Amino acid sequence: MSRDPYEAYGFTRKGLIEAIRLGEGRFTKRELARALKLSGDQRVGLKDALRELEAEGAIRKTGAKAYDLAGGLPPVTVLEVFDRDIDGEFLCQPVKAELRGPVIRLAPERKSGRTRPAGVGDRVLAKLIPDEEGGYDAEVIRVLGQASERILCVLRVSGPGEARLVPVDKRARHELIPARGEARKAADGDLVSVRVESERRHGLKTATIEEVIGSADSPRAGSIIAMAEHGVPEGFSDAELKEVEAIRPARMGSRTDLRDIPLITIDPHDARDHDDAVWAAPDDDPKNAGGWVVIVAIADVAAYVRAASPLDKGARNRGVSVYLPDRVAPMLPERLSNDLCSLKEGEERPCLAVRMVFDRDGNKRGHNFIRGWMRSAASLSYEDAQEAIDGRGKGKAETLLDGVLKPLWGAYAALKLARGRREPLEIDAPERKIVIGEDGSVQGVKLRDRFDAHKLIEEMMIQANVAAAEALEEKRTAQIYRVHDEPGTQKLENLAEFLPHVGLKWTRGDRVTPARFNVVLKSAEGGEHYETVNEVVLRSQSQAVYDTNNLGHFGLNLERYSHFTSPIRRYADLTIHRALIRAYKLGDDGQSDEERSQLEAIAEETTANERRAMAAERDAVDRYIAGWLASRTGGEFEGRITGVTRFGLFVRLDETGADGLCPISQLGDEYFAHDEGAHALVGQRTGGRFRLGLRVKVRLVEATPVTGGLIFDMLTPPEAGDPNRGRTSARSGRKGFERRPGGRPNKPHGRRKN
Prior knowledge:
Layout: H1 13-23, H2 29-35, H3 41-56, E1 59-63, E2 66-69, E3 76-84, E4 90-94, E5 104-106, E6 123-130, E7 136-143, E8 150-159, E9 162-167, E10 177-178, E11 190-196, E12 206-215, H4 221-230, H5 238-246, E13 256-257, E14 264-267, E15 276-282, E16 292-299, H6 310-318, E17 322-324, E18 327-329, H7 334-340, E19 348-358, E20 364-375, E21 378-381, H8 382-389, H9 395-399, H10 401-422, E22 432-436, E23 442-447, H11 452-474, E24 481-483, H12 489-498, H13 514-524, H14 530-539, E25 545-547, H15 571-583, H16 593-597, H17 599-629, E26 636-645, E27 648-653, E28 659-663, E29 671-675, E30 680-683, E31 689-691, E32 695-704, E33 709-714, H18 723-731, E34 735-738
Parallel strand pairs: 5-7, 10-12, 13-20, 14-21
Antiparallel strand pairs: 1-2, 3-4, 3-6, 4-5, 6-7, 8-9, 8-11, 11-12, 15-16, 16-19, 17-18, 19-20, 22-23, 24-25, 26-27, 26-32, 27-28, 29-30, 29-34, 30-31, 32-33
Helix pairs in contact: 4-17, 11-15, 13-14
């Protein structure tokens, strides 16, 4: 048997090709070396191996110095829409993993298309058209799976025998017809779950009504629709309810008594559950002068939710609690989440706690995990704690100021020093909260306050999570990490192309660190592009996932990190608690061999469930805001362009933070081309530009509560530009649309080539 020629370099031909395949066309030589764990002279061998494989035709370069397996994709294939790029265009990948690699963008669908528009999460049968950048445009032939999937619709009855089923999905364009007799199952305006029955070539499809959910016009319909559309489990099985009813409160037993330590909870003022408590004091060890002892105590969910029980299986199926504007879909029944596992003020509760010791500069000197028995000294809101520290305290917060709050802030000051040296990613992304009235209607939208009290709790939770990951590694116990990989090559390339347009730069080839992004963000601070740069940097990041393989946490700039602090609302945290109980021999209800063997599957499931929850939460917010704005159709709003695509502009309103679409047909009576590098739509006659981040005024044309969709008319003229540059961009093949009489855009031209 012949020897692999690359073994002398510390890798094999098969291993290198597999690494290139897994890189999906995004791995550069540096990233391949990291994947193969090469160093020194081995990297020289990698360079030679890549040159040889490229000469053989086994691999090819995909741009930005990345590599992919050679061989084109079939002209027609099944794709999955998995993401949007910085401009809002949909990105696809073949369902078959062995075909993945080149960049595939979804082409705008023709107006005569017979299927609903595709969106993230859809599978499509598509025709692939190669572009000159080594990627493809995908023209949708058909959105797959619609006939076998449940679709959420609103029944609209216009007269005897005249009824339509209107999909609530904002991407959907075509209505359905109720099958014979189906319209009698529900009333006009009811929200219904249907299944498509016919796939006729011409005309509207028919569907049967499988479930009547309730009125689509009720104030709380936004959450109902979001949960049903994304398949968020609601309620608990009979077996779960029976089990939770039989639970008896835990007893102290052999637990460590922490009742004399004034642990307190600090949460939002409307919090119903309290799953973490904190305490700090100066370290009395003379060898650690100026140091601090911090205890973070977490509700002991493992004491009540035993592995493989109905409660455990239900929690694993839900994965996370889902937080919607008017309700919470909890991972665990309320008797646990709001009672037995809630660290209520003055009530004794079981906990799993970590005692951490830090020096005066915030460096951790050690940690130890305790299965404890505690009694919360107080439940404070963030506002109460902050006002007490700022000298405006009253009530119980004021009484706790000297003995409890000031030591917490003293420990936080030390932790802040260590955080500053660590330099995690510091993106400024303000959060908005929808204010809901008692009847479920929207009362307003406001920015969430962010005090030092928030940052204190956040940093102490981070330290507890790090300690959990380190402790389990020290004890050689299997665990699920919270992983955040560094940005991929293509996203960094997009960022490097964009920043010069706002007077900033990103040097290609330099090591990628959170600190480099922070320099960019700091440079933009105080300027007109600050919000846009923050958003673009955020979009350039990878998504965090749960994984049994530790890749570190790029955003927090930590080598190891696991979620330990919220087992009430995240299943991954419950697995960490069980692992710690096993590792420290703290009881017989720790991690089992069976659970250990399933951790990889649990990590994948929990990641998917987290994505599901995030999508439902986002869509519910969109629907509530659209309902609130529906009465203001025709009104004018200030905003900012947050996305530039071939088919129009996404605009975010200042007042509500809501995003809506301004179709390209509403931009003016000239041809507009999409300049991808500049992230702008450029008028070909005048050279005028609508660019990412531009401040604009728009008129609300349409607000559809049932879908959450907003459509705007552009009132702000484009920025002045060079007409010659506009014509050049058209000749260079940048995509664009021309306004026709009636406002419908023409078919786009070919993709811009670099």
